Amino acid sequence: MPELRIRKPFQCAQCGYDLEGLPVRGNCPECGCExxxxxxxxxxxxxEEDHATPREGAAARARALFFACLSIxxxxxxxxxxxxxxxxxxxxxxxxxxxxxxxxxIDEILRLTVTxxxxxxxxxxxxxxxxxVVFMPIPTDGRALxxxxxxxxxxxxxxxxxxxxxxxxxxxxxxxxPAALALLATAPLFRELGTLSRVxxxxxxxxxxxxxxxxxxxxxxxxxxxxxxxxxxELAMAAWLLGSMAxxxxxxxxxxxxxxxxxxxxxxxxxxxxxxxxVGEAGPSKPN
Length: 288
Ligand SMILES: [Zn+2]
Description:
Radius of gyration: 25 Å
Structural class: mainly alpha
Number of strands: 2
Strand content: under 5%
Helix content: 55-70%
Distance between the termini: 20 Å
Largest sheet: 2 strands, antiparallel
Bound molecules: zinc ion
Number of helices: 10
Shape: elongated
Strand order of the largest sheet: 1-2
Order of helices and strands: EHHHHHHHHHHE
């Protein structure tokens, strides 16, 4: 049986040495790492299968998905300024009547944090809107049209909340509606494009489930609505805290979504090589 060799430029996974022309069963001449190890790391074995073949326009949709997730993360940061206000401003739930005056240095840090988070959430709403209006490929079927409409509605709503009354952009029942809509707009893209990324397929523990985030968004909205409706102060406070914790989980989840979307974008734009392209019998494919 003829010896199998690496037949195109292919880097050692450990040291980056070009292994082209070397036998698959050998070791890297530079670091001694087994060549099969480098192959196993770089090649996507499942890419041979049909489910891992990108459909037309997948790169554009993967890019839009990444920006949509980044927008969700940034927009959701609006809960930060609202939480700080709840501790410091007069009338804030966690503040004593009349509010508190933190020491000047802390006050400075808090004000800076509020400015940064507010700017980030405004940028997120603008980016999200641009993503779904401009960058998302033109829908060709009814479901894709719904996805786009949900995305546009989500970020338009987030923008309106931010510019209308900054208080209701975070820690209020109104927050959960754009959060939920934005998730509904990304879920079908994760389902479609997720299979293209080996990392996304295999690293299940680091894969953020969109339905759990949806539950967090709805829990936050429901709990905050309860906090406004119930008369008992202790019950209202408990509901408000529950809502705030659910919102914090949502923000962490959004961070994971960004990472997941990044894996998918990388897999779509720079697909893993297929084993048949990299490995072959020595001879015809390599003239020297
Ligand atoms: Zn090496």
